[in-house]
Design brief:
Blueprint: H1 12-18, E1 20-24, E2 30-34, E3 42-44, E4 48-57, E5 66-75, E6 82-86, E7 90-96, H2 115-118, H3 120-125, E8 134-141, E9 145-149, H4 150-155, E10 159-162, E11 166-172, E12 179-183, E13 186-199, E14 202-213, E15 219-221, E16 225-231, E17 243-252, E18 255-256, H5 259-264, E19 268-271, E20 275-281, E21 288-294, E22 297-304, E23 306-314, E24 319-326, E25 329-330, E26 334-335, E27 339-342, E28 350-359, E29 362-369, E30 372-375, H6 376-381, E31 385-390, E32 396-404, E33 411-415, E34 418-431, E35 436-449, E36 455-460, E37 464-470, E38 479-482, E39 485-486, H7 489-494, E40 498-499, E41 503-509, E42 515-520, E43 524-535, E44 540-552, E45 556-558, E46 563-569, E47 593-594, E48 598-604, E49 611-615, E50 618-622, H8 629-636
The protein binds 2-acetamido-2-deoxy-beta-D-glucopyranose (4 copies).
Pfam family, one: ZP-N
Protein name: ZP domain-containing protein
Organism: Lates calcarifer
Length: 645
C-alpha cells in the first residue's frame, strides 16, 4: 500500500494538540494511545468513536518502509458532566454542553436554592449551543485573564472542538497560559478557561478547567517503594467546598486493574482526608528496570506508569467529574552492585559462579582472565559453560559461568595437605541499547584435600606374615589382592582379617599358597608375600607392597629307626616345575606325597641310591632330588635344576 497522500503526519506538537501519545516499552514495542475524542476520531453521537491510523515502519537501508493500517472503534456513553484526562504530553477536558431542557428558567430565581441557576453566568452556560453558535474566543485565567481568538489558540497548540453534546479542550502539558499551583503539597499544572460562543447578538460561554499533577511533591521514593500522592480535593477543579468521591480505580499503562490483580502485584491504595496514596514496590509487575552505568558501576532505575481514575460529584451542583491521570514514574538511579554467588563444589573440580541480578538490557560480552580475554563464544569453545538465566517473576537475569579446575586460567598452590585452586576473572558487560560498558571483577578460591593413598606395612614372626593397611583420604575404597587372588570374605576369615575404620590387618601363614618361595637356605625358606591394593573403578593398582621373610624350616629329617624324610618345595623361579615328577637318585623313588608346590620323600639310608660318608663323629647320608633325565632334557632350556642335599 502506498502512503495515503491525504494522511496527516502526527508530529509531537500535533499529537499533544490532538490527543495522541506514544510509549515505547522495554521490549522496544510502541504503544499508541489515542483520546476517544481525538481530532481525527469519527464520532457517532458521542457514543461510538473510530480512529484509523496508518503506521509507517522504517526499514533498514536495504528494506522498504512498511505500512500498516490500524483502526479501532470504542463505545463509550457513560459520559460524566466533565471528563479530565492527564496524559503524558497533554491535558484534556471535555464538558457537557447544556441540553435543550436546561433552557428552563429557575422557578424562583430569588430563592436560588440551586446555585446552578443562581449564578447568571452558569445559567448562560447551560443554554443549548445550536448550529448557529460559533466559538469565537477563549479566555484563559492564569489567573489573570488572557483572551485569545480561536484560530490563535489553535496556532498556539490548543485543541478545541465541539462534539454533538460536548466541548473538548486540549492543551500541551505546559503552555504560557497554564500555571502551577501547589495543591495539598502536590504541584499541579492548571488550565482554566472560558470558551465564548456567539450567535448574532447572543453570546454564551462554557467554563472548562483541567489540573494535572507534576512529579514535584507527587512522589517519594525509598529503595523498595514508590509512593504517589494525588490530592483528594483538587481545588482548581472544584467550585464548592464539598465533594463526594464515588469511585477510585488504579491501573497501569492506561489499563484498569481489579483489586485481586492489584493485590497480586502488591500495589496498595489508601485514602485519607488529604490524599489518595498509591504504593508500588520497586520491581513490581507492570514496570521495568532500566540499567545504567556510572563510573563503571551498575545502577538501575525502575519505571512504571500507574493510572488513577476518580469519579466525584459536587454536592452543591450535582455535576460529576471523571478524572483520569496517567503518571509515568521513574525512580532515581539505585546502585545495585551485582551479587557473586559462588556455587563451587570443590569435589566436582569445577568453579561455578553466578553473577546478578541484572536488568534484561544487560549483555555479557567477554570474560577477562589474567593473561587473556575470551569472548562468550571463546569461553564455550574452551569448554566453559556460560549461561544466562531469566528470573521467571521479574525481568531480571543472572549469568552463570563454569570453569574446570584443569583449565590453565585456574592457578593451583599447595598448602598443608590441601591444593588451593584460584581464579581471577572480570566479567565484561554491556548495557543495551546504549552500548555502555562496565565490568565486574570476581575472585574465586576452592580448596581440595590432597588425595593420600593408603599405605601398607607388615612384618613376620616364625610362621605368619602380618600386613597392616592404613587407609588414605579415600577410606576403604579399594580391594586387596593377596598373592594373586582377591581377598574375599572366605579368605579374610582364614587370614584373621580385621578392620576398624582407619586400618585393616590380616595374617598369612608362610605355608599359604599365596606365599611364594624365593630360595632355600640351610635351615630356612626365603619367602615373599605380595599385596596389592586395587581401585575397583579404574581397575588399577593404587599401591603394591611386598614383604620378604625367612622362615626357619626343617626340610630334612632323620629318624633313629633309619627312616629319612625330605621336603622339596617349588621355587618361584621355576614356575613350570611339577613337584610330583621329582625323584630321588633312584628314578623309581618318587615322592610319597606331592602337590603343585611340594614333594615329600620318605626313604632309608640303604635305599633309593642313598650314599654314605664317614666322618670322625658322624655319618653323612646323601641323596639328590631331581627330575628324571628325559624330563630334564625338555626343561633344560628353561631353568636350572633344583638340587637338595
Ligand atoms: C521472585 O521470586 C523469588 C523466589 O521465588 C523471590 O525471592 C523474589 O523476591 C521474587 N522477586 C520479585 C521481584 O517478586
Ligand atoms: C570486553 O567487554 C567490555 C565490556 O563490554 C569492553 O569494554 C571491552 O572492550 C571488551 N574487551 C575486549 C578485549 O573485547
Ligand atoms: C585401628 O587399628 C589401628 C591398628 O591396629 C590402630 O592404630 C588404630 O588406633 C585403630 N583405630 C581405632 C579407631 O580403633
Ligand atoms: C620310623 O620312625 C618314624 C618316626 O617315628 C615313623 O614314622 C616310621 O613309620 C618308622 N619306620 C619304620 C619302618 O618303622
Amino acid at each position: 500500500k502506498d502512503w495515503d497522500d491525504s494522511a496527516i503526519l502526527l508530529t509531537p506538537s500535533l499529537a499533544s494538540q490532538c490527543g495522541f501519545s506514544i510509549k515505547i516499552n522495554q521490549m522496544g514495542n510502541a504503544m499508541i494511545y489515542a483520546s476517544l475524542q481525538n481530532c481525527f476520531a469519527q464520532n457517532v453521537g458521542d457514543k461510538a468513536f473510530t480512529t484509523t491510523l496508518t503506521l509507517r515502519l522504517h526499514g533498514n537501508r536495504m528494506a522498504e518502509d512498511e505500512l500498516y493500517q490500524v483502526a479501532e472503534t470504542c463505545q463509550y456513553a457513560a459520559w460524566a458532566s466533565r471528563e479530565i484526562v492527564c496524559d503524558r504530553n497533554y491535558m484534556e477536558v471535555s464538558v457537557k454542553r447544556a441540553a435543550p431542557d436546561d433552557y428552563a428558567l429557575p422557578e424562583n430565581p430569588v430563592q436560588g436554592t440551586n446555585p446552578k441557576f443562581g449564578d447568571p453566568r452558569r445559567a448562560a452556560e447551560k443554554q443549548t449551543i445550536d448550529a448557529g453558535f460559533r466559538i469565537t474566543t477563549i479566555m484563559f485565567y492564569i489567573p489573570v485573564e488572557k483572551v485569545m481568538g480561536v484560530t490563535e489558540a489553535q496556532r498556539s497548540g490548543y485543541g478545541i472542538a465541539n462534539t454533538p453534546s460536548r466541548l473538548v479542550l486540549r492543551s500541551p502539558k505546559t503552555t504560557p497560559e497554564t500555571y502551577t499551583q501547589n495543591v495539598a503539597g502536590v504541584h499541579m499544572t492548571v488550565l482554566k478557561t472560558s470558551t465564548v460562543f456567539e450567535k448574532k447578538w447572543l453570546a454564551t460561554q462554557i467554563d472548562a478547567a483541567a489540573a494535572c499533577p507534576i512529579l514535584e511533591g507527587s512522589v517519594s521514593f525509598t529503595p523498595n517503594t514508590i509512593t504517589w500522592y494525588l490530592p483528594r480535593h483538587i481545588d482548581p477543579l472544584i467550585s464548592s467546598g464539598q465533594l463526594q468521591l464515588l469511585e477510585v480505580h488504579i491501573g497501569v499503562d492506561g489499563q484498569r486493574l481489579d483489586p485481586a490483580e492489584m493485590a497480586a502485584r502488591q500495589y496498595s491504595l489508601s485514602i485519607n482526608d488529604v490524599h489518595i496514596i498509591i504504593q508500588i514496590p520497586v520491581g513490581a509487575v507492570g514496570g521495568y528496570f532500566k540499567s545504567h552505568v556510572q563510573d563503571d558501576h551498575y545502577h538501575t532505575s525502575y519505571t512504571i506508569e500507574p493510572m488513577l481514575e476518580l469519579l466525584w460529584t459536587e454536592d452543591s451542583i450535582h455535576e460529576d467529574t471523571r478524572y483520569k491521570v496517567l503518571f509515568p514514574i521513574t525512580t532515581p538511579l539505585l546502585s545495585r552492585p551485582p551479587q557473586v554467588i559462588d556455587n563451587t563444589v570443590p569435589e566436582q573440580r569445577m568453579f561455578k559462579v553466578l553473577l546478578g541480578p541484572f536488568g534484561s538490557d544487560v549483555a555479557l560480552m567477554n570474560i577477562s582472565f589474567p593473561y587473556e580475554v575470551l569472548s562468550v563464544a571463546d569461553c564455550i569453545a574452551r569448554g566453559f559453560t556460560v549461561l544466562e538465566h531469566m528470573s521467571p517473576n521479574s525481568s531480571s537475569k543472572v549469568f552463570m559461568l563454569e570453569v574446570p579446575f584443569t583449565d590453565p586460567v585456574v592457578s593451583q598452590t599447595r598448602d598443608m595437605g590441601y591444593t588451593v585452586y584460584s581464579l581471577h576473572l572480570t566479567f565484561g558487560l554491556l548495557v543495551l541499547p546504549e552500548f555502555a560498558p562496565f565490568s565486574h571483577p570476581v575472585y574465586l578460591e576452592a580448596k581440595l584435600v590432597d588425595i593420600v593413598p593408603p599405605s601398607v606395612s607388615g612384618g613376620c614372626d616364625y610362621q605368619n606374615f602380618y600386613v597392616l593397611v592404613q587407609y588414605g583420604t579415600q577410606g576403604a575404597n579399594f580391594q586387596t589382592i593377596v598373592g594373586k587372588q582377591l581377598l574375599t570374605s572366605d579368605l579374610a576369615e582364614q587370614y584373621s582379617f580385621m578392620e576398624n575404620g582407619t586400618h585393616l590387618s590380616f595374617a598369612v601363614p608362610f605355608s599359604s599358597p599365596d606365599v611364594v618361595f624365593e630360595a632355600i637356605e640351610s635351615s630356612s625358606v626365603k619367602t615373599r608375600l605380595d599385596v596389592a591394593l586395587l581401585n575397583p573403578e579404574t581397575n588399577k593398582n593404587i599401591k603394591e607392597f611386598s614383604l620378604a621373610c625367612n622362615f626357619p624350616s626343617t626340610l630334612i629329617e632323620c629318624f633313629p629307626n633309619g627312616t629319612m624324610t625330605a621336603l622339596a618345595v617349588k621355587l618361584e623361579s621355576v614356575p613350570s616345575l611339577n613337584p610330583g615328577q621329582l625323584t630321588l637318585r633312584d628314578p623309581t623313588c618318587g615322592p610319597s606325597y606331592s602337590d603343585d608346590r611340594y614333594a615329600y620323600f620318605v626313604f632309608t639310608g640303604n635305599s633309593c641310591g642313598t650314599t654314605r660318608k664317614f666322618f670322625p663323629n658322624m655319618m653323612l647320608y646323601a641323596n639328590e632330588i631331581s627330575l628324571p633325565d628325559e624330563l630334564e632334557k625338555i626343561r633344560e632350556s628353561n631353568t636350572e635344576d633344583p638340587e637338595y642335599e
